Amino acid sequence: MLRRLFNQLMTLGAGSLGAESSAQETEGGQPPDAGDGPTPFVPANREPVNIDDVRELAKQKMESATFEYVDTGSLDGLTLKENIEAFRRLQLMPPLLKGVAQAEMSTTVLGEKIALPIMLAPVAGQQMYHPNGGQAAARAAASAGTVYCMSSSVGNSVEEIAAASRGPKWFQLYMPRDRGVARRLVERVDKAGFKAIIMTVDLGEWKDADRRNSFALPKEMLVKHLQDIGFDNINERMSNQEVQDFNAQAWHVSLTWDVFDWLRSITDLPLLIKGVLRKDDARRAVSIGLDGIVVSNHGGRRLDGMPATIDVLPEIVKVVGDRAEIYMDGGIRRGTDVLKAISRGARAVLIGRPYAWGLGAAGEDGVRQVIDLLREEFENAMVSSGCARLADIDDSLIR
Hints:
By secondary structure, the protein is α/β, with parallel strands linked by helices. It has one domain (3-397): Aldolase class I (TIM Barrel, Alpha-Beta Barrel), CATH 3.20.20.70. The chain is 43% helix and 11% strand. The chain contains 15 helices and ten strands. The strands form two sheets. Strands 3-10-9-8-7-6-5-4 form an eight-stranded parallel sheet. A hairpin with a 2-residue loop joins strand 1 and strand 2 (112-114). Helix 5 (133-144) runs parallel beside helix 15. Mean pLDDT is 89; it is low at 1-11 and 14-40.
């Protein structure tokens, strides 16, 4: 393994942002698809009618290597594909004649009411997809009445995202090795009005497309990112190599459970763990008093060959019970997927790639459109299944 390249790719998903590529195409001149075949061409002047259409518009508009960074999964993309296919294998069994004409989609997350059970997951490097980046996505989430989860490596400071909208926001923390920097960052998150901290524990990425494209970090974007985190010793006078070398060792990528003890000692914000797939990890999470669990395999970006999140969700729900709130991400492409996730016990879902594609296709308007498409499909799924409210959704609806 080329250690420097590995560290660089790890930090793309754990504290870095921005991309500067050789702009070379993959073999055949096209980036690989995550779906099951060719996606129909969608003219730029035609309104998308589903998430696949938004993805195609993003593919047409975004720089190739940046699109592939968002779009592809680890190694052969088996986990990425399985996240999607597992939803498709679940069949809906709607009861008849329930007399439901409209659906109430609101719910609460960590005690806060949101308009629908779809939140925006932490996604790195959003300024690569659109100049307004995370600020645009935060505004779109607020207008939809839902939560924006800010990635540590989004490309903006905590204060910039906080100022972008008044909507509810959670902060996803990648842990700096310097605990002083980490403490000050958490204090800033609290002061800025964020409502929770998500600790993503399945750190890093390993993707063929990024290696093939020589996906690298532009100095100016990396300098801003490190300064936004609180590394005051980083400045533009440093050489690119000096900045890259600093970044490679700045992040704690081998965490243990005691990181939550430390976090709890410095903040009263609710704490969530993201990356849970195993029952024993779920038990450990609730035993130490974590407020929420995100069932996640990092969207298939880190380690190939893991199970689909929707498949392991029921056993995590069974183990946890009502001791913590359970969310999931991975593979959400349709409103029916949201229905299936809730029927299996998720309180809400988080979407990542879909709104990143929306951002790349049309900025804030694109993110709004992605949320609207999923909302409309989800409402139709609820009405068609005789569910007037989320509490009516249970596991009798699927097989």
